[in-house]
Amino acid sequence: MPDLSRSRLRHLPNALSLLRLLMAVPIALLVVYDESVLAMALFIAAGATDGIDGWLAKRYRWQSQLGGWLDPLADKALVLSVCIALTAHGDLPYWLLGLIAIRDLVIVSGAVAFHFNYAPLHAAPTIVGKITTAALLLLVVLLLWQNVNAQIPSWLVETLTLACAGLLLVSGVDYVRRWSVKARRIGDRHP
């Protein structure tokens, strides 16, 4: 079997993350212009790139520092832009969009502050962060599907919306707690 670790393909995970990042705004525009079928198809394809790039990076050891930042940035851009469009379209409550935006702002500003005040921070999503992203992706797909075929029970959308809100709060607190512990450890070593 050829040594894929040195292959030009090693950049494929980053290319897929970049593609997902570039798909965010067009998908959001499709939502705004009521092209829900195409928006949902592209959103699912974008979500698939997230799974594929992660699998490739781990399977062939193609992880990179750029990928560590690009992958979660693409996830956040995709989810946030589509959620903004869904809110503008009247499908997603404003309060949930606000919670998503505040949590992402806390995560990004915390990462930047940690990086510049303590040490380089290697972006590593937590399990609760991954579950939160998965729940948000599912909610977006349900809302898009509801625009195509309104047969989705409202209790299901409402339950998933509340679950996403809880997960957003838990994951936001979890990231802040993790960085605080790391900062304290670094501070203890360098008084």
Which characteristics define this entry?
mainly alpha, 6 helices, 191 residues, single chain, globular
Describe the fold and architecture:
This protein has 191 residues and is mostly helical. It has a single domain (10-189), classed as CDP-alcohol phosphotransferase transmembrane (TM) domain (Four Helix Bundle (Hemerythrin (Met), subunit A)), CATH 1.20.120. The protein is 79% helix and 0% strand. The chain is built from 6 helices and no strands. The chain has helices at residues 12-32, 36-59, 65-88, 94-117, 127-148, 154-189. It starts with 11 loop residues before the first helix and ends with a helix. The relative contact order is 0.12. The mean pLDDT is 90.
Helix amount: over 70%
Helical segment count? 6
Mean pLDDT: 90
CATH superfamily: CDP-alcohol phosphotransferase transmembrane (TM) domain
Beta-strand content bin: under 5%
Supply the number of structural domains.
Answer: 1
Provide a concise account of the structure shown.
The protein is an all-alpha fold. The protein has one domain (10-189): Up-down Bundle (Four Helix Bundle (Hemerythrin (Met), subunit A)), CATH 1.20.120.
Topology, please?
Blueprint: H1 12-32, H2 36-59, H3 65-88, H4 94-117, H5 127-148, H6 154-189
